Amino acid sequence: GQTCGNGVVEGTEECDDSNRLPMDGCSPSCLYEEELCSVLYPGSEDDDTTANCDDPDCATAKHCDPGEMDGDGDGFTPNMGDCADADATIHPAALEICDDGIDNNCDGDTDHGGDIDGDGAFHCMSGVVYDCNDYSSEQSPLNFEVPGDGIDNDCDTTVDEDPHSCDCTTGIDQAQAMGMCSADSVVEYYNGNSHGIATAYGNVVPQHGCRFFTISSGYAWDTSDFNSTNMGENGNPVSTTNCFECTTADTQSTWAHPGPEGCCEDDNDNDPSRLSIMVDVPANARSFSFQFIFFSEEYPYYVGSTFNDTLYVVMDSMSLSQIQNITFAASENPADTLQPVTINNSLFENPLVTDIGGTGYDVGGEGGTTGWVTTTAPCIPGETIIIDFWIHDEGDHVYDSAAVIDNFQWHVESVDGPVTVK
């Protein structure tokens, strides 16, 4: 048969609380009943002689449980993770002091850890301060410095320094030349002269800092010979350089595609050069921008023809629905389409406004330029993105083009999508 008080609900029992006491919610016959406070919580658990049920400081046994009592008045009980309830300076929300030998924030690590602001950076690393302000995500070693806001955003002890000044140092690489100071870059090309880093290109000077990067389908710094038939070999970049693959086919008249033009067309693309950059997005960056100036010896004579050198910048980011070209412009030939940058774009200056003297792209009325153009694109804080800068000859491998890329900048503002503006 059933045995009331054995802790097992059996037969006709409604409850069994392992005792035969009355008025404790389960009767001596194991049926539900009213509770009586003095039965549930007898005595005076805080030892002030006042019965628990009459004591406003200890109305129930829970409030008298040492694990539920805030002994030091810091707002945290032992059951809430307070590992030193007699010391109000030690609790789960305390700032970890990096060199005092105490686990200030009760996370189990002494002089290490702590991320009160949730910005992904520990306040302490190996006994020294890493996140200089663990109460504000505006300050973190994972951030980039935001010039002009009066805050040491990147915790380097300097306020409002230029976060893109690496292009004025020595031993810089291609990414740093354009102001991207924390990136890994790889250049793929088919002639050692098809790319370079310089302080000027003819009369064209950097838009920011000291240097810029140039990529070309010909000789990047040659002002005398743009008829560079020996710059490369016929072949689509897909078969030779592992570029991002397109998900849809493309034609000359529909350029709003998810990948670079060279991945979608036939083997009529020549002399490709590529700068591939992988970079971690700072924790406070939601977009970025860069400037470029595109030159082509094909302008204006081959506008609308199959001889149409192309610059495209392909981005792989979680902020985009797919891998896609982010540098494009409205086209004039054909009209009302989006294209990577070519001589068919409305970006080209006619008449020439920008001083490109000394570049060779203004000789004898041949050649032209877009002037400086800015592309802005979204990104997600903390993600790793890949940006590929491509240029190639199209239709043949004769008249060449070049692009100068400079003034990369992170921004705290969000943008809706990639946009390229003059």
Number of strands: 17
> Could you give a short account of the major beta sheet?
6 strands, antiparallel
Gap between N and C termini, in Å? Answer: 90 Å
Strand content: 15-25%
The share of residues in helices is under 10%
Could you characterize the architecture of this molecule?
4% of the residues lie in helices and 24% in strands. With 422 residues, the protein is mostly beta strands. It is elongated.
Give a brief rundown of this model.
With 422 residues, the protein is mainly beta.
List keywords for this structure.
mainly beta, 422 residues, 4 helices, single chain, 5-stranded antiparallel β-sheet
Which helices and strands appear, and what pairs or packs with what?
Blueprint: E1 24-26, E2 32-35, H1 37-40, H2 61-64, E3 124-125, E4 128-129, H3 174-177, E5 183-188, E6 195-198, E7 212-216, H4 238-241, E8 269-280, E9 287-296, E10 310-316, E11 324-325, E12 329-332, E13 335-339, E14 368-378, E15 384-394, E16 401-411, E17 419-421
Antiparallel strand pairs: 1-2, 3-4, 5-8, 6-7, 7-16, 8-15, 9-14, 9-16, 10-11, 10-15, 12-13, 14-17
